[in-house]
Amino acid sequence: MNEKLCQSCGKPMGETNKLYGTEKNGTRSLDYCDDCYKNGEFTSQITKERMIEVSIPYLLKEKPGISADEARQEMEAFFPTLKRWKQFKS
Q: Is 22 helix (H, G, I), strand (E, B) or coil?
């Protein structure tokens, strides 16, 4: 089973639409979580690099055996695969 991930931060969004962001017309976004996307707009004009830095503590909690540098490297490879960040070259 492929878990649906936010295409901005990579957060798992689950089976229900509870964690999904919203479009301008009020429908649920199929791509972004409610932390990243509301009313058809991103909630923050954060850069990919800053999003990675903000996300490190969450990955460390999920994978306690890795270092912050390993988490950063993993996310530097992962984030460019997400819809929001595909357009940006590293």
A: strand
